[in-house]
Hints:
The structure holds two protein chains of two kinds. By secondary structure, chain A is α/β, with parallel strands linked by helices. Chain A contains 17 helices and eleven strands. The radius of gyration of chain B is 24 Å and the shape is elongated.
Amino acid sequence: xxxxxxxxxxxxxxxxxxxxxxxxxxxxxxxxxxxxxxxxxxxxxxxxxxxxxxxxxxxxxxxxxxxxxxxxxxxxxxxxxxxxxxxxxxxxxxxxxxxxxxxxxxxxxxxxxxxxxxxxxxxxxxxxxxxxxxxxxxxxxxxxxxxxxxxxxxxxxxxxxxxxxxxxxxxxxxxxxxxxxxxxxxxxxxxxxxxxxxxxxxxxxxxxxxxxxxxxxxxxxxxxxxxxxxxxxxxxxxxxxxxxxxxxxxxxxxxxxxxxxxxxxxxxxxxxxxxxxxxxxxxxxxxxxxxxxxxxxxxxxxxxxxxxxxxxxxxxxxxxxxxxxxxxxxxxxxxxxxxxxxxxxxxxxxxxxxxxxxxxxxxxxxxxxxxxxxxxxxxxxxxxxxxxxxxx
Amino acid sequence: xxxxxxxxxxxxxxxxxxxxxxxxxxxxxxxxxxxxxxxxxxxxxxxxxxxxxxxxxxxxxxxxxxxxxxxxxxxxxxxxxxxxxxxxxxxxxxxxxxxxxxxxxxxxxxxxxxxxxxxxxxxxxxxxxxxxxxxxxxxxxxxxxxxxxxxxxxxxxxxxxxxxxxxxxxxxxxxxxxxxxxxxxxxxxxxxxxxxxxxxxxxxxxxxxxxxxxxxxxxxxxxxxxxxxxxxxxxxxxxxxxxxxxxxxxxxxxxxxxxxxxxxxxxxxxxxxxxxxxxxx
Lengths: 392, 281
Ligand SMILES: Nc1ncnc2c1ncn2[C@@H]1O[C@H](COP(=O)(O)OP(=O)(O)OP(=O)(O)O)[C@@H](O)[C@H]1O
Ligand SMILES: [Mg+2]
């Protein structure tokens, strides 16, 4: 009876399986949830979502499927004047987002973002408990969003009614497609650690050997197991300063914490793009630097190269001699990037800027091309992709 | 037989539904959440509420799935054979029962807690799939099958150190303990300190959530830290207005002891509080 709900979950990339769906039905039959919508919500969540990162997606789908169906006739929608929308935008968007939107080309884009926002907000004022009977037939047009113009349901009633649990979106920050924050940085660390463990050598498993030797009537039977330490060697190049300031703490924290995990981990800084000099101490960057050639000659080809940077700069800084904002560079940055990539074929670029904005910045596209698409967002999911790329 | 929380444990509505689903359908319940949000204690409370025995299996990085079933102590047997001990002829003497075996055969329909499953090897959960599904396993050394008469209630906790395999996840109910909101936290505090002064709780919670909000903390204080801190505050009889005034010089020592355990975090907090004060003045 909830097939539609199940399908919508799958569509929204919540990986619920048929087995779990059947478990849910079984639990319904066994009378686990009392006859309250909330209990059904809790039960289905517990049966169908096994990863907190998907809880927010689940909430959104639940809201979509079960909120707005029987209030269709009550729906009051109106064409909204642009001025009013601007005001609304102020309420829904953070300062940062507004600035971003300005940078992206103003109101057109803003409308689009807002439209998405509203989509999420829809149906909030609706409720009721006829959900069981109508669940299979949920019409998705039921909430008053019309993609042609911006129309939304009457705003007032939303405040009058209590917000539904699933509409509170309490698990929003657990979705790993958002940038790294203090909460998920720990999880990110663990991901990196797993990566560090890969490629470990085998070592003698003493208890295993004793046991199987004893089993073997005293004949020596050696057992091996993977060594706990790792062999992965990494060279990390951090972009510092300028537009990276906002991200630097998170990324540094991440990598400094993971340092002890790697047997070989080296890092250097650069600014915007790599040129002939790199440095280790950002305060003394002008006096104590290391020639990039030296770095190239020091670390063997089996190091994995990780760039961390927003790749946000003027395209000249990448493609022209003398394009650097800080000094006169004889050779263009891209030549240096290519040299590094030739020397260390296993490489990835981690970008703290959200992936959806990459296409708006020409320099990001340039760098991405240089990296032959091995640019990944600095999100948990992005890190995972990057690690997979590096360990291929 | 439904779990409703206990007088020493505050169970939110969603947690109750998840626990009861696991009990009713006899499937394991996987519990995740920030450290100190009551994952481990939950199993104790369920056992208490249902009047059942609790068997705990605390998983470490070296724990193997097989150890939960049984271990064959070949070394002792080898030694006994050297000493000419007659026990050596019966292999049964060297089979050491694991926690699953115990849980399957205990007469009281027990609760089995598998704590911190993510600490073990990635293969660990996979190795237990069949045993948890069928609640039976085979002992090769003796040729016997150990089968649960009554399926124990299995509670599994994870701190997210590793991803758990999908096949394993599909067999469990799942509950993520969200960090308690203020209201829930107040109930938790009351459960632990029934006689605590309301005003102290109010002020302390305000400070506590403020501290948690501090951007950049390495380790956010959790429920257990809050409880420790409150105990300290009550013990020291700290005048309430210290909490109210947010005077960090006075606030930092008791904070540092219980809430902020990391030196860098203490510095960070001091710095932020200093800025806040300067802005106010
Ligand atoms: N809902 C609750 N009701 C009552 N006490 C609670 C609750 N949640 C947490 N506590 C208290 O917090 C303390 C920490 O709980 P517990 O050790 O179970 O946390 P945990 O989630 O297992 O932490 P860790 O991840 O560090 O193992 C316990 O002493 C418990 O008394
Ligand atoms: Mg615990």
